[in-house]
Write a structure and sequence with these properties.
mainly alpha; two-stranded parallel ribbon; 184 residues; 4 strands
Length: 184
Amino acid sequence: MKKKISTEEFEKLEHKIWLEFLENATQLDIYKSVITSNFDGNSFLCNWIKDNPKIDKAIILVVYWMSAPRWKKKFLNREDYLEKEGYGIDGFDFVEEIEKKYIAGFYKGNEIIFNPKSDVEAYDWTSDYLDEIVVREIPEIMFKPTEGKIELKEYPEDFDEGLPISPINYAQKVYDIFDEYDVE
């Protein structure tokens, strides 16, 4: 019989695995992690990236565009968002903070090439939510491709749910938690 743990206990175990990976990861590893991650369910990774000034600008742009910034631009400000939407303010705040930090030069890395108009799978992130009526524009700098030297030419098959499967299979470590525990 498996031991029962709470969602909070599971998240602590999972975050420990993520931190172990992130503390030893290269910028390219983190980039691969972001583009292969279940984006809606990985606030730990996203917040770790957002608060790290050493993160490559390409990684930040990927996180920014995956966060649907245009959809959030249909609100004048935080108060307008809360009044009209009433939930999910963390996502609004997240996009606003990344934008401010990016414009201010908080993120220093510039190793990786990323074009928000054509990612590794030729997807144009800037075309999301074009049908939304916006009241604030996305700053032009957020549309500009990064000028790094490393270009990922294809979707990384060596990552699963944002975690590498080799040389250390961090993804399997997370799956093992489910084998060992019943998460309530």
